Amino acid sequence: MIEKAELQSGWTFSCNDTGRPDLSGSIPAAVPGCVHLDLLANRLIVDPYIDVNEISNDWIGRTEWTYRCSFEAAADEGKVHELVFDGLDTIATIRLNGKEVARTFNQHRTYRFDVSALLKAGVNELTVTFHSAYAYGAEMEEHYGYRPNNYPGPGNLMRKMACNFGWDWGPTLVTAGIWKPVRLESWDRAQLFETRVSATLAGGDGLVKVHAKLARHGASGACRIVAEIAGVSHTVEIAQDAAEASFDIRVSSPRLWWPHHLGAQPLYPLKIELRDGESDDLPIAIPRRSVFVLSGLILRRTQTAQPSPLSSTRCRFSSAARTGFPTIASPPV
Q1: For the chain, which domains are there?
Q2: How far apart are CA 279 and CA 128, in angstroms?
Q3: Tens of pLDDT along 273-302?
């Protein structure tokens, strides 16, 4: 089973710029959030959207910040313990109990780190230091050379939202912070590590191809994957030593998805679950969030809010113009 401990309370942050001693202490922070919102909530800056305050707040994006929180955990050696960050903005160094866990450079993805060796029973201290995006951009320009850019700033040299560095409709506010939820996940036996899904048309039928990878720990034993779409269920037995499985599900005569004004846009939920090899009512773990690009469209699989063996994908079967190829996508979530 998988256990989750949300780490969204008790956070503080501080400025690592020695030239600003008034900001060196522990300041209350909100997670998810960003440094601009935290400074504003603590009345330490003026509203950057008023007048030309974005100019007086420009120093924020050029400064290093550290976020901290303490949490209690039970260091169960029989389980895998992972820190999961749904979103970090952007150039960050993560430490647990004073030991470096990882460094990140991409705002647009989820990060998952095995901290089983660093987690201790009782109180643990987690810190995330956000380095200046400007400083990182300067390093990248020195390494790669100059690259043309529509706006001043290094937004074209890193995986960070480009509008931070200015746009014709908004100010230049180079943010930093834990902008999506963070949690500690503990699991044993097995879980779905990754799933890749594609859809094609095979004659008049829809063909859904699923490739799943498993993460295992300890004596997980045999298990099975159960997938269901459009009333069609498919079960795959996974041997004790197997780490992945691929299978197809054929959907008879699916309704096609059409662009706006050209027809309907029917959706087909796809449910995938991993189950114990001996019991149909004992879920092992749940799939992780993933984002895949297929045929130029986005397929997004989202995790359910509460621990559950299910994670759904909404699929669109579509005949692409002039190609006859189907596409698969989902509405924003």
Answers
A1: 2-184 (2.60.120.260), 188-315 (2.60.40.10)
A2: 41
A3: 988 755 444 344 433 332 222 232 223 333
